[in-house]
Design a protein that fits this description.
Number of domains: 2
Low-confidence stretches: none
Largest sheet: 7 strands, mixed
Number of helices: 11
CATH topology of the largest domain: Immunoglobulin-like
Strand order of the largest sheet: 4-7-2-1-10-13-12
CATH architecture of the largest domain: Sandwich
Number of strands: 14
CATH class of the largest domain: Mainly Beta
Mean pLDDT: 84
Length: about 300
């Protein structure tokens, strides 16, 4: 075995330890499904346990490496017999003589994949804004399974689900370039008044209050009304209308950046989700933000207040 393969097998070291305990039963089908987001994994192993072997081996004991559990077991007729396993003294234990008549059994293991190991299996490239036009911003999405050839030597099937690529979509300019001057003045005056109220400069408090009164005479619309519109325009449900994502990706969670540096949110956080497998180890594509359409909607929403 090459040094590269030995090093990569360390990623699945706990799995191989489990398989070693099943070696008398000739495990010959191995598949693994990993959820990238919550790091849960499920492994299916097909065992061959003829009657003579059941009599020969009186008990099976498997230490629970990395907290994995034997979630279930089925015979050839798909009867569930996972309850024949019991957990004691940090080991999963089975008396083979209690197994129903069958020669093949499917064992389902579940466990958690540590984050450092998961990043050695999957590479997720940070999204990059590759293309900006007057109408669109496009973000390049790129994720892949590392060392596919080595994984094929170890697994018949391996898939990673719920892979998320975080995209930071800039939206501040859509507000700064369209919100009417009167509304901007009201927001700036309110922001100054709130800031002065947290300080100790009494003169600044007086000046801020005067600016707020002048802005309020110019614009009767309340700040709460302005903020309600801003928040509506930055909900995930609304913002999704101005996004397109190319297959094999789909839209996941969408939320605004809550911390305000200026008057408006600087960006939206968008998760583009995909799945990878040994057969399809690479996922690339674009997430497109329909910037012009969104900016027009922002302008219309605030202009209606005037």
């Amino acid at each position: 075995m090459s040094i590269q393969l030995r090093n990569f097998e360390k990623v699945f070291e706990w799995v191989h330890k489990v398989l070693d305990y099943f070696e008398p039963y000739k495990p010959d089908t191995k598949s693994m499904v990993i959820n990238y987001r919550n790091m849960n994994s499920e492994i299916n192993i097909l065992l061959h346990i003829p009657e003579n072997l059941k009599r020969k081996i009186s008990k099976v004991e498997i230490p629970a490496y990395q907290g994995f559990v034997i979630a279930d077991m089925m015979d050839e007729s798909f009867n569930r017999i996972g309850n024949l396993w019991n957990f004691a003294d940090g080991k999963w234990k089975l008396d083979p003589s209690t197994l129903p008549p069958s020669e093949k059994y499917l064992v389902i293991l579940r466990g958690k994949i540590p984050e450092d190991i998961l990043t050695r299996i999957v590479r997720v490239q940070p999204a990059v804004n590759r293309d900006q036009t007057e109408e669109f911003d496009r973000y390049w999405l790129d994720s892949m399974i590392r060392n596919v050839g080595l994984l094929e030597d170890m697994w018949q099937e391996l898939s990673i689900e719920d892979i998320g690529v975080r995209v930071r979509v800039g939206i501040e300019r859509s507000f700064l370039t369209t919100v009417p001057k009167e509304l901007m003045n009201k927001l700036k005056a309110t922001q100054r008044w709130v800031s002065a109220g947290h300080g100790r400069d009494k003169d600044e408090v007086t000046r801020a209050w005067g600016q707020l009164r002048r802005a309020s005479r110019e614009m009767k619309i309340s700040v709460d009304t302005i903020l309600d519109i801003m928040y509506k325009l930055t909900t995930g449900e609304t913002f999704a209308n101005y996004l397109n994502v190319a297959t094999p990706y789909s839209l996941g969670e969408i939320k605004r950046e809550e911390r305000l540096i200026g008057l408006f949110p600087e960006r939206m956080f968008v998760d583009a989700r995909t799945e990878l497998s040994i057969r399809q180890p690479i996922a690339t594509g674009y997430l497109t933000f329909k910037k012009k359409e969104y900016t027009q909607e922002v302008e219309k929403s605030f202009s209606d207040l005037i």
